[in-house]
Amino acid sequence: MKKTINRRDFFKLAGLGGVVFASGLGNLSSAANKAGREGNAYDDFYFVQLSDMHWGFEGPPNPDAKGTLKKAVTAVNSLELQPDFIVFTGDLTHTTDDPKERRKRMAEFRDIVSELKVKDIRFLPGEHDASLDRGEAYQEFFGKTHYTFDHKGVHFIVLDNVSDPGAIIGEEQLQWLAADLKQLPNDAKIVVFTHRPLFDLYPQWDWATRDGAKAVELLMPHPNVTVFYGHIHQEHHHMTGHISHHAAKSLIFPLPIAGSQPKRAPLPWDPAQPYKGLGFRRVEAEVKKAEYAITEFPLSKG
Questions:
Q1: Superkingdom, according to UniProt (predicted)?
Q2: CATH number of residue 203's parent domain
């Protein structure tokens, strides 16, 4: 079904969650206003990013661990206009040393997200899914750990910076990235999905990719690059030169601000505000200008 978002629809959608951030590349609400003034509709698209579900986790930081992912599926399905596609940016499941249990969790996760109305779903692994077996079980359920796809004029690149337990992308994948970028025009609209940040956010807490700078260096010649990632369980925005990087909230428990406490321990569950700090985001793309507007949705408005 063709998904055309006109100005009225845009503001109706924005009213659900509130646009809280527009990337450094621009603001789609301005485009919507312009389209409205000119009496035109704009035919762009949006996708939904969900991250760090940790299916299989149990503990006080989320006493509703078995219900939260299903709640998120319901929330996405209730969006008035469904996204073009959905991306899960890693840690689909929580780490377990038992290979049989690992696969059981992946099967359960896959079955739950199959209830999403949108069937174009893109996955990438987190270290909880892939670091113990270099992505072997993950690939059985979700396919390749790094790949590309194109959608309405935007080139999407999925990078795997978790299957190597050393938190690296690796030379082989970097060469693959270089070859992929080489075939693109310099002004191509590029979106990169990763699990870990590609920059050194806080290496003491494993919030970095050891060779991430090499990937950023390969991307730098292209003026229209945006990176979306997970891993740190909170909304965060950062620029490396002209490249913007945006971390998404978690769907299991929030983590503290980098360096704000001695250990990277989950923030405690607040019974007065259940699901506080959990959520997902919508990313609207204006293809012609390579602009993105990010809207953060809480998992619960309560």
A1: Bacteria
A2: 3.60.21.10
